[in-house]
Write a structure and sequence with these properties.
Helix content is 47%, strand content 13%. The protein has helices at 35-47, 72-79, 84-103, 119-126, 154-162, 164-173, 179-185, 197-209, 213-225, 231-245, 249-259; strands at residues 12-16, 19-24, 56-61, 108-111, 115-117, 129-132, 137-139, 176-178, 190-191. Strands 1-2-3-4-6-9 form a six-stranded mixed beta sheet, sandwiched between helices. It has a three-stranded mixed beta sheet with strand order 5-7-8. The longest helix is centred in the middle third of the chain and has 20 residues, at 84-103.
């Protein structure tokens, strides 16, 4: 399956060689998510499992903001009128989006400027790597609208990134985490100038995708699975995963390049 001609309806899609750039694009409202964009993003990340021409994904927002979460009028208003069946269908869909981000084999980088709150903060949290700018303001706002902080996997994933106590503070208060604070806590991998954050994220992804992409997908899979394993099980799973990678052509290419004192050129097979 090739996605070079993919034309989504609810966000922008651009291929930069083998890297897909997804841009949330409702800038007048700071790029909120709607029922339709949630579903289309979920389906897109699910389809990436089968994409032959995408080795990495960068997700960003248009015109100085990342994402303002669920749209107040298009989502929050209708939710107040739904019964339990409709509400559970929606909350499961939002959870399916972040699961799809984790389960796609490609590395995902979030390039984040400006507002990154609510569901937008969760999309960032479930990305593999996060680049910020000095203007980035991240908040898990669920408590601010009378909801629990346990939304879209927040109570599972956020403590793994920044620690239990810090996660608890952010989820109980809904307060804003600055870019510098997020960097110090390990939420952000790098802080870039606003005008360069997307380009730096793409450049970083380009370097990643020059590596052995099948092996990268194995790394991502193990990073996801090993949280729920015992140490002995994790070591055995890594032994099996590495043995599989040792059967790839990229492993042979690396060996032959070493013998010739050359840099290996990986092809992902």
């Amino acid at each position: 399956m090739k996605m070079s001609d993919f034309k989504p309806k609810h966000f922008r899609w651009e291929m930069r060689e083998n890297i897909a750039v997804i841009t949330l694009s409702i800038p007048a409202k700071k790029n909120p998510l709607t029922f339709e964009s949630y579903a289309e993003l979920r389906d897109t990340f699910r389809d990436l499992v089968y994409a032959e021409d995408v080795n990495g994904v960068v997700i960003t927002g248009a015109e100085g903001n990342f994402c303002s979460g669920g749209d107040v009028n298009d989502i929050i208003g209708p939710l107040t009128k739904m019964g339990m069946d409709g509400l559970l269908k929606f909350t499961r869909m939002t959870g399916d989006l972040v699961k799809a981000i984790r389960n796609c084999p490609q590395p995902v980088i979030a390039a984040i400027d400006g507002v990154c709150v609510g569901a937008g903060a969760m999309v960032a949290t479930f990305s593999d790597i996060r680049f910020a700018t000095p203007n980035t303001r991240t908040a898990f706002l669920f408590v601010k609208v009378g909801l629990s902080g346990c939304d879209m996997g927040a109570c599972a994933m956020l403590p793994r990134i920044i620690g239990q106590g810090r996660a608890a503070e952010l989820l109980f208060t809904g307060r804003t985490m600055s870019a510098e604070e997020g960097f110090q806590w390990g939420f952000f991998n790098k802080i870039c100038p606003s005008e360069k954050v997307l380009e730096e994220a793409v450049a970083f992804m380009q370097e990643i995708t020059k590596g052995p992409n099948f092996a990268h997908s194995m790394t991502k899979n193990m990073l996801n699975q090993e949280w729920s394993m015992s140490l002995d099980t994790a070591i055995e799973m890594e032994a099996q995963a590495q043995a599989i990678c040792m059967q790839t052509e990229d492993f042979k290419r690396a060996y032959n390049a070493f013998l010739k004192k050359e840099k290996p050129v990986f092809e992902g097979d």
